[in-house]
Amino acid sequence: MSDASSSKFLNRKQVNETLSRKITIALDAMGGDNAPVEICKGAYEACTQYEDIEIILTGDTKRINACLTPHERIHLQQASEIIDPDEHPANAIRKKKDSSLRVAMEMVRHGDAQGCISAGSTGAIVAGGVLVVGRIDGIDRPALGIPVPSTGNVSFMLDVGATVRCKPENLLQFALMGSVYSRKILGVENPQVKLLSNGSEDIKGDDTVLAARELIERQGALNFGGYIEGNEVFFGKADVIVCDGFNGNIALKLGEGLIQGLKSMLTDEVKNSLMAKAGILLLAPTVKKLLARFNYEKYGGTPLLGVKGAVLKAHGRSKSPAIVSAISAARKFIAEDGTEQINRDIER
Amino acid sequence: MSDASSSKFLNRKQVNETLSRKITIALDAMGGDNAPVEICKGAYEACTQYEDIEIILTGDTKRINACLTPHERIHLQQASEIIDPDEHPANAIRKKKDSSLRVAMEMVRHGDAQGCISAGSTGAIVAGGVLVVGRIDGIDRPALGIPVPSTGNVSFMLDVGATVRCKPENLLQFALMGSVYSRKILGVENPQVKLLSNGSEDIKGDDTVLAARELIERQGALNFGGYIEGNEVFFGKADVIVCDGFNGNIALKLGEGLIQGLKSMLTDEVKNSLMAKAGILLLAPTVKKLLARFNYEKYGGTPLLGVKGAVLKAHGRSKSPAIVSAISAARKFIAEDGTEQINRDIER
Lengths: 348, 348
Fold this sequence. Notes:
The first copy, chain A, is built from 14 helices and 11 strands. The first copy, chain A, has about 350 residues and is α/β, with parallel strands linked by helices.
């Protein structure tokens, strides 16, 4: 049996062919605060932008048709249910078999799409990734990764919320997956991986992080740089930053909130000074450019790594530009065959 | 036996007397990046500012005398050793009996000072707090707390690095101590306490945070508001924010680093625009005012709660203004008798 046929995943030849043929992405039309209007708008815009993609919108076709600008490469797949953000994720995925999210994920499972995207409940996307799409052999828990803006290079941080509390083995697997993603998707030649901890000295870290450090060092396959502290995260001091989903979620949201808070405090302060008002006007384009680095609409999709397909979470508040970015990220992940790349590295 | 004599701590009458008599603070002259020069300078400045304090500088008296401006309320206590930041904290405290930090803590233990301050190794201060000064009965682990700047009221966050990984019971005790501190020292009438978590819904949280939530609710003595998410931390959405020392340390440093990163990115962007340069000039006083809210020199000392005395950690990079702030915070903590307040609440 050839290497190609023995794998559920594409081989290098097929990967090269991928870019020249259609990439099919299932898109949950009902997930997120602005569904289905902004999701449909994003799907249309992405199709006009990328000629090699086909999009299957899953959800209530009546509601979708009411707001969708038709496009020859946009198809609809009826799904009568919606998973609410406050439902128990795994239960919702199991019970709501005809939900827009589950239907999108079933398409990936059955090979009708190479990837899927949802702006719906993070928990349900993670649960669906594991229960419907399925884990890659050798990966016990999946991880959500995001690019972190910084003064230097962009760092890739994972997990930011898929696996709330991790064993050391999970952190090792995240490190391996993050390294592959950084190399293959972000184009970093020999990505340096660091563990997020409460200090840079060897004696720092809680039990899990300490054990993960030992595991990664013993495993030996990674360009491992030890610990990274919170204050170094935004200075590009690692290509891959590894943490558990609890810490990662808090860190991600803390950064988001601090920027919002600073904006709000600045607005307050500026009110009382004419000079400051003039300053803000002159500085506005620069600040806008700066804040764009932190704009989730730019990176759009957060990949769920460790599952058998390109599964991406779009921000819950996504408008059409964020959906276009998520589609663009999924397209790249599929074209570069991210899943198979991770699969190979884990097998090794 | 009267209430006063049966307690190792001051009673209310004595507390009231405290402000009219001298407050004695032992100050580690050798701890921190700018020791002993800036520490001595800070001690002198504080003494000119506050007439009710006496300061005992601990360390190499030769080196101290070389840079100290004499003051009648500044005294010296020889200590021949220094604890380095990279030493194992507990070992260093145990072995270096004549270190400037240990000598300062011994003064608190023996009642020669009501409080002590160090800008040295956080780990050694925590270890010394537990091993030398001693824990309050009913408190298993101490916590470092800091005021968090926000758009609204200041929140008090603990633990930011004393107890790296916590049991649910520790988080309950932190909640109780934080509530007392907020009420008695920060003057918040009925402080609302929240647990830092990865989401606001009840199903969120890792096992420890979930169990702590149940414990706090069952205990029933606190004004408990459930979970707080990372993005709400800088919006004054809780008076007291409780987390373990691992998360708290990462969160604290992440905030520090993000502000530094933003400053550095802004400087980079501004370089290329004359308009932006003019804007920065006009906006400078406002931005300075805004960033002052995040300046550790203003709050200076971080109290180590849960030990039998006022033990404060000053920032490692402290210059004299930060030392003055730390002395001011210690003075207030002693005058309000923070330790006894916590002691009473815990007993109850």
